[in-house]
Design brief:
The protein is mainly α. It is built from 16 helices and no strands. It has one domain. It comes from Allorhizobium borbori.
């Protein structure tokens, strides 16, 4: 009888925590639904509903957030417990499977599925930006500004003179596609489902969406450009980035940038949509998201901050060296995201909590309870 009562109480607490969590996320759900509705309306207004990618992302989200990342979270939490407290500490398993932890995981997973609707909406809007802007009119201006900013030099050539090793270039290819994706969406998954990040959850999620919407849709639409690797296609100038194009085409392997670059251009030329489709260079969402993660996770310690800053510079350099972006694309992204982070941290009181504050306050109680 007592076991039944305890089970009933456990599930009641889980439900209670889930309800509070969903209530706390109501603004995020409302924005995602409004953003999705706007994307559907925009594509229909332009007569291109076929460029929607909502179904693509919902299917991918199921395998990523319901299968792959939960396994990664369990492994991470297990290792974290081992190194911080140890498996033999009394009460630690009750903490891991407490109603609060379970509710965070469940409500967070539902929110992440909603984020796939958000990502599909972002890509759908990105697909029609060239229709709205009449192509890519700003590549020449951005390339000219890049050369002026670097004292008459092309940033690609400056970087290649320093980073010319085939082994380094092979790593940069893999890192820019695979590792960046794992870190960016792994960080999102951890912040949304883990109670340890509860204090920064709303701020991180809001700024995460800000990077995609403000940088990836709004600013991209205002200064629409395709990027150096597509420069000849959108300007008719075959010479300016011929050396860069030849360099990128010479790269081999499954993560070769030319594979994905050709995939994107073929979709654009044929007026089709697909997973990750849409072309825009300014500003760099790759750099913007990594800047966001450095600002948040760099607050853990100086070591995290230094490692994060170095990694951000690698991503920024890779975006230029692999032909995706002009250097200014990354500079602007980093500045815009940093400014947005500082603004909400300083002037929005409910977004000023430090990383892990809630989790750190609850830890002594759990440890003492197990003594």
């Amino acid at each position: 009888m007592s076991g039944t009562i305890r089970s009933g109480t456990y599930f009641q607490e889980c439900i209670g925590y889930c309800v509070r969590r969903f209530h706390g996320d109501r603004s995020a759900y409302a924005f995602i639904l409004a953003y999705a509705a706007f994307s559907v309306w925009l594509l229909r207004a332009l007569g291109r509903p076929d460029l929607s990618t909502l179904d693509n992302y919902l299917m991918q989200g199921f395998s990523l957030f319901l299968l792959v990342l939960p396994v990664m979270l369990v492994i991470f939490e297990t290792l974290s417990i081992y190194f911080r407290i140890g498996f033999r500490r009394p009460g630690i398993y009750r903490r891991v499977f407490s109603p609060r932890h379970v509710a965070h995981a469940l409500s967070g997973t539902v929110l992440l599925m909603a984020m796939m609707l958000f990502m599909g909406s972002f890509t759908s809007i990105k697909n029609v930006l060239p229709i709205i802007g009449g192509g890519f009119p700003f590549d020449k201006a951005l390339a000219d500004f890049d050369r002026w900013l670097h004292m008459g030099n092309q940033p690609f050539k400056l970087l290649y003179s320093v980073i010319g090793s085939p082994a380094v270039l092979s790593f940069l290819q893999w890192n820019y596609t695979v590792m960046w994706f794992m870190l960016s969406f792994g960080a999102l998954f951890f912040v949304v489902v883990s109670p340890r990040a509860a204090a920064i959850r709303a701020r991180y999620l809001g700024l995460f969406m800000f990077v995609w919407v403000f940088c990836g849709n709004l600013l991209a639409g205002l200064l629409l450009s395709a990027g150096p690797v597509y420069y000849r296609h959108v300007t008719g100038d075959d010479e300016r980035f011929a050396a860069l194009r030849a360099f990128v085409d010479s790269m081999t392997g499954p993560e070769s940038p030319s594979i994905y670059q050709n995939y994107l251009w073929n979709l654009y030329e044929n007026g089709m949509s697909g997973l990750g489709s849409g072309i825009s260079a300014f500003p760099s969402v790759h750099v913007g998201l990594m800047t966001l993660n450095v600002l948040f996770f760099g607050g853990l310690s100086k070591v995290h901050a230094v490692i994060g800053a170095l990694y951000l510079m690698i991503i920024m350099a890779s975006s230029v060296l692999l032909g995706w972006h002009y250097a200014i694309d990354g500079y602007v992204s980093a500045l815009v995201v940093t400014a947005a982070y500082l603004f909400v941290t300083q002037f929005v009181p409910r977004f000023s909590a430090r990383w892990g504050a809630e989790a750190l306050q609850s830890l002594p109680q759990v440890v003492n309870a197990g003594k």
